[in-house]
Design goal:
Urease, subunit C, domain 1, TIM Barrel, alpha/beta, 4-stranded parallel β-sheet, homodimer, about 35% helix, about 25% strand
Chain lengths: ~425, ~425
């Protein structure tokens, strides 16, 4: 589709609230200059001159936002699933990430990642690179070419990291960050930098303080990890005895709230104080249900966060999660919330499919701006889903077909088209 | 591949114990008259005359056995996931199953199920039909044509069932069963009948007693459900106050052990007495992790069952589970066991990928006979998996590639060939 003003026709489904879908059979979705001009049962006369693509009975839904994924871990997705977080990092993850010092290896790995992400259901993503500046810039080049909108972070880590994967000092780490930011400033249309302290265990107070200053100066957003694993939380208590909760080890240095947005991945075991801190600072929780199962981390109380008004988005967290498929993440969010209700806390009802889809679209979408809906005024991010290969003897409603697609995207579903801010992505 | 004696060449991986894989790069797997003649690093001279198919670097692994799946529920897989078991049955499942009284609807639904099962990773399956005899015979016709080996059950239910889906009396249910058995006796090469009381809540003592007699007379195997959901278990206590555990409501009527094999699906909350009953009678637990998550049922303590020597196989339990993909079931068995370890009981270590793959192959395979391995003497059930579409910058071992396939079968994997008892299945 050339140009950024056009009309799509198909069976439309998207959230009008956290708990409700709006559906239209054979509806019209209008894109004008890369933004939605609205969803209509009949095409308004004023749009009759725009090029129209009729997708028949394909589903048209908002794009999905993966707000936590590690690009250099993509090469070992689906293997090395036998350890918990801290041992997993030391045994598998750090050695693999160290290979991205080599640009030839990074070229191979990031080409595959960017290519697969382009063809995936993800329209926008927030991505960890490694500590290496040239590799991270290469990753940004690759992602820019996909047409997806992404934030990408050069990782900071200056303590409790192996020699082969550590900034030598806080100042060296900060200097590398400033140099990276200077390099990429204004270089891309779709790809923006995000400050990325790996997590408190690998970031000295001095480094955190420096990153807080860069955030204050630049208004750049931040991503990191928080309260993922019980051993990690104990470790942070020992490393930062001055903190009253893990979240405070970021907030103390100005890394939550203020002049920019922050994403904290996981938050499986946040204390009431920490949850209130997340809420008060507008911090986004990146919920990563598959990773939290496969690394034996646990299940985050997402229902509680939604009730309290904490911002929540969804992440695949490859390679703690194996799958880049965001529909799978939606289904896993529902399934894991049910197991949490059953096994952990029957005070917190499980998530519905509408709520999980909301988290994957509007929930994480607002991190990027007006993103995650097909309603008027939102950036035109859309997926066209051919579900004719998921066969049934039944007549299904549009809503049922979207629910089914969340569970069975890879088992008979086909992504027919994908748009980001009105630009069609090559599949 | 014509004929049932041939050689396959590829990267071979299969369990030599519950905890260990054997792998061969560019190995030879020999099939003679439908059974394995062994796996070899070099092709023995005596097999040099057999036709050889070289699959290059595709993986060759044993077929996967789905020992619990409901064919008439396939049409609503992936929808209607918002209720627990008993409400789910009454609201969604019973109304859908009642449609299979209509052979035209059954033709549509079972054609899709059989076709998708044929193309799936499943080589053998144990299948619930409905209470309807003509529909169940149609299902058996369809499954026979796939070339897969299956057991199929006409469901018995004579109480606590809606009028529109209930045998009128125990005797009517038994008479329908006898009539069905007479019809299908000797009719099929691959498709065998299995006695199928739905579960204790819908089967009167009189019906159970009659089915126990048919079992004793015929030596037919049995399948049912056991201790899936806490409300169900409470209900059974009320219905059968004479029983000391839910399992006894089957055993009392001779439905466990003795002259044939029995499968009990789920066993999420079996008491120590019940577990000992399952072990002593050689009953198979059909572990259905995805269904147990999506119906909010819980997580079965499979590690405990393995330690105690209870027979365990794996099931998709469509449509409690959404996916027919048995590799997905393997990955879910690992993931759910990790969540159980984390959230429920840290005395029971989680399952490894080797153990979960063992359950899907040899664990459930022994229900069918000498099935589930590529070793000499086993029925030649094999999958050839092209994983070249799951790209990585890394060199991976054969074992790592199989592990990865369990997590990512539908995300870049391709089933290149499938054999059941030496017969190639059309894909």
């Amino acid at each position: 589709m050339e140009g950024k003003s056009f009309v799509l026709k198909g069976d439309v489904c998207y959230n009008v609230s956290q708990t409700e879908f709006r559906t239209l059979e054979a509806g019209y979705v209008v894109c004008v200059d890369g933004a939605s001009a609205g969803v209509f049962e009949e095409l308004p006369e004023r749009y009759a001159q725009l090029p129209l693509r009729d997708f028949g009975h394909a589903l048209i839904v908002p794009g999905l936002n993966d707000i936590h994924v590690h690009a250099p871990q993509y090469g070992f997705r689906g293997i090395a699933m036998d350890l918990e977080l801290l041992d997993w990092l030391n045994t598998y993850t750090f050695p693999e990430e160290s290979k991205y010092a080599d640009l030839a290896y990074a070229e191979k790995g990031y080409s595959i990642f960017a290519d697969d992400l382009q063809r995936s259901f993800t329209t926008r993503a927030v991505v960890f690179g490694t500590m290496h500046v040239p590799g991270t810039e290469l990753l940004m080049d690759k992602l820019e070419a996909t047409g997806l909108k992404t934030y990408v972070g050069k990782v900071n880590m200056d303590r409790n990291s192996p020699d082969y994967l550590s900034d030598q000092t806080a100042e060296a780490s900060l200097e590398a960050t400033r140099s990276w930011l200077a390099d990429v400033s204004g270089r891309y249309q779709n790809t923006l930098p995000i400050l990325t302290p790996r997590f408190t265990p690998t970031c000295s107070d001095e480094l955190m303080e420096g990153l807080g200053k860069i955030k204050a100066e630049t208004g750049l957003p931040v991503q990191s990890h928080l309260s993922e694993n019980l051993s990690e939380i104990d470790w942070v208590k020992g490393l930062c005895p001055w903190s009253s909760c893990y979240g405070q080890t970021y907030d103390h240095f100005g890394l939550l709230g203020g002049n920019s947005k922050t994403i904290m991945a996981h938050c499986n075991y946040s204390t009431p104080e920490e949850v209130e801190l997340l809420r008060a600072t507008g911090t986004y929780v990146a919920h990563c249900p598959q990773s939290n199962a496969f690394l034996s981390s646990g299940i985050a109380p997402i229902r509680d966060y939604l009730c309290r008004g904490v911002n929540v988005g969804l992440g695949t967290d490859v390679a703690g999660g194996a799958s880049l498929n965001m529909f799978r993440a939606v289904a896993d969010a529902v399934g894991c919330s049910k197991l949490r209700w059953r096994c952990v806390d029957q005070e917190l009802p499980s998530l519905t499919i509408q709520e999980a889809f909301w988290i994957a679209t509007l929930g994480g979408g607002s991190f990027f701006g007006k993103v995650g809906s097909l309603d008027e005024g939102f950036d035109f991010d859309a997926l066209v889903l051919d579900d004719s290969g998921i066969r049934s003897p039944r007549e299904l409603s549009v809503e049922q077909r979207l629910e089914r697609y969340c569970y069975l995207a890879d088992e008979g579903g086909r992504l027919a088209a994908k748009f980001v801010a009105g630009k069609e992505i090559e599949l």
